[in-house]
Amino acid sequence: MGEDIKSRVIVGLNQCDILMHRDYWERWNSSPYGELVAYMSDKEKYVETLIHNTICTGMSDTENVNIKAVCYSAGYKEAGEKQKRSYNIDRLMSSVAENINA
């Protein structure tokens, strides 16, 4: 792996369906709407920047450092209920697959 591992970091942010206490979450199709969409995007950017700044401290060449954060919901299950649909797992897995041989 070596130093190149820093150039391909992917962070999965689970439970995006409860980021705003289930407000702005459509349960019937397991997807965000309204303010939650922008909030999730802001969270992804915040985490990417935070990790980038942490990893790049003291590095002279930070041009090839790529941090990708993905909000997702693995789907939850409450007692006596069916498993809820997941959200954005495909985007998370695509990000992983793209970076395996990067």
Note poorly predicted spans.
Answer: none
Number of strands: 4
The backbone outline, from C-alpha atoms, is elongated
Task: Work out the helix count.
Answer: 2
User: What summary fits the major beta sheet?
Assistant: 2 strands, parallel
Class by alpha and beta content: alpha+beta
Look at the structure and give the mean pLDDT: 86
- Give the SSE order as H and E letters: EEEHEH
Beta-strand fraction estimate:
5-15%
Strand order of the largest sheet: 1-4
Alpha carbon gyration radius: 16 Å
Defining traits:
two-stranded parallel sheet; two-stranded antiparallel ribbon; 2 helices; alpha+beta; 4 strands; 32% helix; 102 residues; single chain
Brief summary:
This protein is an alpha+beta fold and about 100 residues long.
Walk me through what this model shows.
It is a single chain. Helices cover 32% and strands 14% of the residues. By secondary structure, the chain is an alpha+beta fold. The strands form 2 sheets. Strands 1-4 form a two-stranded parallel sheet. A two-stranded antiparallel ribbon has the order 2-3. The protein is elongated.
